[in-house]
Specification:
- It is a single chain.
- By secondary structure, the protein is an alpha/beta fold.
- It has one domain: Rossmann fold, CATH 3.40.50.300.
- Helices cover 52% and strands 15% of the residues.
- The protein contains ten helices and five strands, in the order E-H-E-H-H-H-E-H-E-H-H-H-H-E-H.
- A five-stranded parallel beta sheet has the order 2-3-1-4-5.
- Helix 2 packs across helix 3.
- The chain is globular, with a radius of gyration of 16 Å.
- The relative contact order is 0.23.
- The model has no long low-confidence stretch (mean pLDDT 92).
């Protein structure tokens, strides 16, 4: 297989970025995230802090003013038509549809499954997006916001699901089995 785009979906703290980095390090995937490659650069240009609220507000504003596909269009502009690509943070069914329309059978969606308590621990520990002091209640309240609730619909579209309640090594083993299933060999 010479060209593959893997979308990675899942709730906050489920291990999307960790999965993408393993795919990069072991299999040579190019990794793109909506935060790092689309939203954060815009916030920084506007001299705004890269916090979860600012990211969510910007994403909603862009989707409202420029169309539901705008973030995915900007991500797709960065994908070349060869090699392996991992896009971490696919949230909306419309994004999935846009990837399928553009890449057809060369696009697959993976869902990262993880229990809420484990995800909460991870979110606090990493402390990014202003969430190092978040309470479990606040964590769960965010899950009810539009940008988070919609992920449940996108998860149902995933062709593959990877459980990530254990160690990084266990996650890597599961990802390696998935890579084998997809016919992806180790990076040279």
């Amino acid at each position: 297989m010479r060209f593959l785009v893997l979308g990675i979906t899942g709730k906050r703290g489920s291990g999307k970025d960790t999965a993408a980095l393993h795919l990069r390090d072991k299999y040579g995937f190019h990794v793109l995230t909506y935060t790092d490659h689309v939203l954060a650069p815009i916030l920084e240009k506007e001299r705004k802090a890269v916090t979860r609220n600012n990211l969510m507000n910007l994403a909603l504003e862009m989707r409202k003013s420029k169309g539901k596909h705008i973030l995915t269009e900007l991500i797709c502009e960065k994908i070349e038509s060869n090699g392996f690509w991992a896009v971490s943070g696919v949230r909306y069914p419309e994004e999935y549809e846009y990837f399928k329309k553009n890449f057809g059978g060369n696009f697959k969606l993976i869902n990262m499954e993880c229990d809420a308590e484990k995800r909460y621990e991870r979110v606090r520990k990493r402390g990014t997006k202003g969430e190092s002091d978040i309470t479990f209640r606040e964590f769960m309240e965010i899950e009810n916001k539009e940008t988070e609730k919609v992920i449940n619909k996108t998860i149902k579209l995933a062709e593959f699901s990877v459980t990530n309640n254990g160690t990084i090594e266990e996650l890597q083993e599961r990802l390696d089995k998935l890579a084998e299933k997809l016919g992806i060999s180790k990076s040279p």
